[in-house]
Structure formats: C-alpha cells, structure tokens
C-alpha cells in the first residue's frame, strides 16, 4: 500500500504540483515533465545545504534510504522500483493524481520550460522538410529552442499515459 501524502494536495487540482528529483531518477523526471509537471532533476538530497523557498515547495523524490530516514518535511516520496514506468506509477498513486490533473506535452522535456505554439513558418529551418510538410502545428521551447510537433514523441507517450492511469486506477499491483 502506498502512503498517501496528505495536506493541501487532496481535493485540489494537482497540476500545480512540482517536483525535485534525485539524480538517479532522470527518466522519471522526464516522464513527469511529459505529464506537464514542473520537475527539476539531478538533485542530491544527501547534502545538508539548506533549501531555498522555491525548493521547499517541491515534492522530493528519492531512492536513498538515508534521505528518507532523515526527512522531516513530509514532502518526500521514497521510490521503490527500478523501472521508470513503475516509479511514475508510484508517484501517481502516492499523490492520487488523476488524468485531469495532468497537462501532457506542455513542458519541454529537455529543460523543464513551458512550451508555446508557434507559427509554422517560424520553424521552417528548424525541422526536416518532411516534418514541416506533413505537420501544421508546432510548439517551441524558448529556453533550449527545441521544436515539438504532434508525433515527435507523442503517440507512444500517449499510449503509455493511458496505460499508466489504467494501472493506477486499479489500485495496487505488486
Ligand atoms: Zn527546452
């Protein structure tokens, strides 16, 4: 049984939840971004450096028992699985996140910046001729200048997301 984090998360739309993820959980971080959650990765929670206010608002995800045992914030989820997809399921279940709480493909997977729609002409020289000719809607990350379009990663990811929430709503599997 997963421990459900109580507090301000239940009964509220959860799309505002943000995460801070340990460096061993890079793939999990990527998945959280795919779902639209503001997620910083590459963190090391074992140091005793004080957190700033922005960091304190984030839910920390760790696989380090030492970090778990020391935590007093109540904002930490200890991840048990080795597999990114199962790890994501653990987070979804712990926070009771539903499909409606997510906003898939709204954040740059690479750099965690919100992406925005851009004119087709804007990306003319940024994507292959084939991609440009076969798509009409594009999104762009102002930070790292990555271009996204339907199909750039979405079909498989969408199927994975469906699978995720189907599993999560079935409760626990072990
Ligand atoms: Zn980016």
Search tags:
globular, 2 domains, four-stranded parallel beta sheet, 6 helices, 30% helix, 174 residues, binds zinc ion, alpha/beta
Shape: globular
Distance between the termini: 9 Å
N-to-C SSE series?
EHEHEHEHEHEEH
- According to DSSP, the number of beta strands is 7
Instruction: Report the average pLDDT across residues.
Output: 86
Order the strands across the largest sheet as they lie in space.
2-1-3-4
Count of folded domains: 2
Helix/strand class: alpha/beta
Provide the helix percentage.
Answer: 25-40%
How much strand content do the residues show?
5-15%
Low-confidence stretches: 6-11
Number of helices: 6
Descriptive report:
The strands form 2 sheets. A 4-stranded parallel beta sheet has the order 2-1-3-4. It has a 3-stranded antiparallel beta sheet with strand order 5-6-7, with no helix packed on it. A hairpin with a 6-residue loop joins strand 6 (138-140) and strand 7 (147-148). It has 174 residues and is of the alpha/beta class. It has 2 domains: 19-102 and 153-169; 116-148, no CATH class. The N and C termini lie close together (9 Å). Helices cover 30% and strands 14% of the residues. It has helices at residues 26-34, 53-56, 65-70, 84-94, 129-134, 154-169, and strands at residues 19-22, 39-43, 59-62, 76-78, 116-118, 138-140, 147-148. The structure holds zinc ion (ZN).
């Amino acid at each position: 049984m997963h421990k459900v984090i109580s507090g301000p998360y239940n009964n509220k739309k959860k799309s505002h939840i943000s995460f801070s993820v340990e460096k061993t959980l890079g793939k999990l971080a990527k998945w959280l971004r795919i779902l639209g959650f503001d997620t910083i990765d590459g963190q090391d929670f074992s140091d005793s450096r004080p957190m700033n206010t922005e960091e304190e608002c984030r839910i920390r995800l760790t696989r380090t028992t030492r970090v778990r045992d020391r935590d007093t914030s109540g904002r930490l989820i200890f991840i048990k699985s080795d597999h990114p997809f199962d790890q994501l399921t653990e987070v979804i279940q712990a926070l009771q996140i539903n499909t409606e709480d997510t906003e898939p493909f709204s954040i740059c997977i690479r750099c965690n910046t919100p992406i925005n729609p851009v004119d087709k002409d804007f990306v003319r020289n940024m994507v292959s001729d084939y991609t440009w000719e076969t798509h009409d809607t594009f999104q762009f990350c102002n930070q790292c200048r990555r271009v996204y379009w339907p199909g750039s990663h979405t079909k498989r990811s969408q199927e994975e997301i469906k699978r995720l929430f189907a599993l999560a709503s079935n409760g626990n599997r072990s």
